[in-house]
Amino acid sequence: MTQFLTTEGGTLAYDLTGTEGPLVVLAHGMGDTRRAYRSLTPALVAAGYRVAAVDLRGCGESSVEWDSYSRTAIAGDLVALVAHLGGPAVLVGHSIAGGAATIAAATAPELVSAVVELTPFTRAQSIGLGVLRVPRVRRGMTRLLRATLLGSIPQWVAYLDVAHPGAKPAGWEARIEEIRRSLAEPGRMAALKAMGASKPTDAGAQLAHVTCPVLVVQGSEDPDWVDPRAEGEAILADLPAGLGRLEVVEGSGHYPHVQHPDRVAALIVDFLADARA
């Protein structure tokens, strides 16, 4: 059942699964909804966690027309939700929300016990012409740019096809139709474009100030980077020594939690067990 949290800037939609155990907050990437975690949530609940999946500002059932769609703004929403539900919490953030989770951990350490960044955009990217020589990156980047600059739903769907390489996950057509319908609602594509235009410099600047354990999960075939492992290692290098762990899901693209939810759930549960210890 959808629940709502009203903040100064708007209303956030979320659902809560599980009645006891440590709190885990799941935050999706741009152009998506909390439904992206429908296959990951049951495994986390079965492992003893109380799981809240939230629609980012401007997405899903959350309100539109927020004054900012930066990672810092999204981080404030995550902190507000954790405080509302009774923290501290583990923050799991995908893509843009990975950077937001980093900022939340650095600025509200009393409310964040650990961070999981799924294929995150947490650092400023240096994009040269050389990256276009990699076919999967070229295909992904051209579609992503058309979607974010032109506000094109068909180009966003084309990007999603590249970002989920190989066999598509169960329920793929239904998932794509959900995303199409969501982005067709007034204000939703504007939110996607605003997130796509935001820079991750605010998140990168906070990496050195994180004090809790961090797990970075990359997909080996992610079209957003020439070398996804190297990007994950660079994030760990900017964290304080000993806080970060990197895992690469082979065969996965930019959405490992959708393509391989069992693998990602196992990685998260093992990481949190070690973090508690």
Short account of what is shown:
This protein is an alpha/beta fold and 277 residues long.
Describe what you observe in this structure.
The protein is of the alpha/beta class. The chain has a single domain, classed as 3-Layer(aba) Sandwich (Rossmann fold), CATH 3.40.50. The protein is built from eleven helices and eight strands. It has an eight-stranded mixed β-sheet with strand order 1-2-4-3-5-6-7-8, with helices on both faces. Strand 7, helix 9 and strand 8 form a beta-alpha-beta unit. Helix 4 runs antiparallel to helix 5. The longest helix is centred in the middle third of the chain and has 16 residues. The model has no long low-confidence stretch (mean pLDDT 94).
List keywords for this structure.
alpha/beta, Rossmann fold, 8-stranded mixed sheet, 277 residues, single chain
Percent range for β-strand residues: 15-25%
User: Which fold name corresponds to the CATH topology?
Assistant: Rossmann fold
CATH architecture: 3-Layer(aba) Sandwich
Q: Mean pLDDT, as a whole number?
A: 94
**How are the strands of the biggest sheet laid out side by side?**
1-2-4-3-5-6-7-8
Give the SSE order as H and E letters.
EEEHEHEHEHHHHHEHEHH
Looking at this structure, what is the CATH superfamily? Alpha/Beta hydrolase fold, catalytic domain
Number of strands: 8
* Class per helix and strand makeup: alpha/beta
Query: What is the CATH level 1 assignment?
Result: Alpha Beta
Largest sheet: 8 strands, mixed
Shape: globular
Share in helix? 40-55%
Task: Please give the alpha-carbon distance between the first and last residues.
Answer: 34 Å
Radius of gyration, CA atoms, in whole angstroms: 17 Å
What is the domain tally? 1
The unreliable regions are none
Number of helices: 11
